[in-house]
Write a structure and sequence with these properties.
The chain is about 60% helix and about 0% strand. With about 190 residues, it is mainly α. The chain has 2 domains: about 80 residues, no CATH class; about 100 residues, no CATH class. Strands 1-2 form a two-stranded parallel sheet. Helix 5 packs across helix 7. InterPro entries: CRISPR-assoc_prot_Cse2 (IPR013382), Cse2_sf (IPR038287). This is CRISPR-associated protein Cse2. Pfam families: CRISPR_Cse2.
């Protein structure tokens, strides 16, 4: 995802979540509240594609994306639109790190079982269902752009006949992030890239 697209995506998310004062400072028009409401009610990717919030994001994207007839690209952006309405505050925390952090007590915020279900998602709709639940459990306090990049990588791997190297797969990165956060160790993934 290039920086131009990241800016578009971040501004789209900000239009729904920042206060009117913050939006005014950034020169962003507030999104109608129905965008979030419609996207939160989506049970699957196809429903998301029919919402005003998704259309608003889709229209903002560069022509090489928005004029594409590639159904996987459309699914990918619809998934991002739905997932991002569950991110309440943009932080620098990645999804798997937030999931692996200790909650009240000695257990991770997201159980190993639920996290493994996210990793084993085989279809976009299954990923959406698992992702939505985890985003709610981490209270939506993660990085908007890191989540979008994770979804982008999942879709890049989705449907490939020949899997990429294990150390480059999103599921492996999620596991490393999750268990490092669960163990309390600092996270520096530069060695794994």
């Amino acid at each position: 995802m290039d920086s131009k697209i990241e800016i578009i995506l971040l501004r789209w998310w900000q239009s729904m979540f920042l206060s009117p004062e913050q939006l005014r400072e950034k020169g962003i028009t507030p999104a109608p509240s129905i965008y979030k409401a419609q996207l939160k009610r989506c049970e699957n990717i196809e429903m998301a594609m029919l919402t005003d919030g998704f259309r608003d994001l889709w229209i903002r994207l560069p022509d090489e994306i928005s004029l594409s007839n590639n159904p996987v690209k459309i699914e990918y952006w619809a998934m991002i639109a739905v997932a991002l309405v569950y991110v309440r505050s943009n932080s620098d925390i990645k999804l798997a790190v937030a999931a692996g952090r200790k909650g009240g007590g000695n257990k991770s915020v997201v159980s190993e079982l639920r996290f493994s279900q996210l990793q084993s998602a085989k279809t976009p709709n299954e990923l959406l269902r698992r992702l939505r639940r985890i985003l709610q459990q981490v209270k939506g306090n993660i990085s908007v752009l890191a989540l979008a990049q994770d979804i982008e990588e999942w879709f890049a791997e989705y449907g490939k006949l020949q899997p990429c190297r294990a150390d480059k797969r999103i599921n492996v990165r999620w596991v490393i992030d999750y268990y490092r956060a669960a163990s309390g160790k600092s996270i520096d993934l530069s060695d794994f890239r």
